[in-house]
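Appendix B: a complete holo record

For completeness, this appendix reproduces one full record from the ligand-bound portion of the collection. The bound molecule is zinc ion. The inputs are the chain sequence and the ligand SMILES; the output is the full three-dimensional arrangement of the complex, encoded as structure tokens. No fields have been trimmed.
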Amino acid sequence: MKKLKNFLKRHQTVAAILVAVLSSLVWAILQTLLNRVNFFDAILDLPVKLLSFVWSFLLLDIPVWAIIIGVGVITSGFCLYVRAFSTSEQEGLIKDYTSDSYKGQKYKWNWNKNQMHDLRPICNDCSGELIPDNLTGYSAWLLCPNCDKRYKMTDETALAHAETYFTNRANRKSEELKQAKS
Ligand SMILES: [Zn+2]
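The structure of the chain with zinc ion bound, as generated:
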């Protein structure tokens, strides 16, 4: 088997002919089974179909505008694919960065595309989620139910500062990783 593989690698023309012959055989067998056509008729049918396709192409039976549109669609599809791939790769670089400390307080967040979501302080000791210590009225403290530690409630300004700090770090990390890759 290995010998055959090496032989085909060295003789690519032979390999191409083999593939063509094999696929013609498969095509003929399928035609025989599905359409109850005579096996040899089916074998002869394939080259005729292929030749007539090439012939119609050469005679420009296919209009030039169709070829231009076809090439355009394929090219723009390929460009979109490349762009989508590079964006998702960049997302992948920072998606693991979801927790860090700012001014002595641990925070946690999620990513939606490149946007930070649900930024919240977590327990500095056990990284557990915090809840307000009073759920029925105003609460100035956040409580860690795991270790009974209390934290001063973070206000909008502190959250905004933390968010900018972590976003900047994330951007820097992704730049570094991109440079390390290239
Ligand atoms: Zn805790």
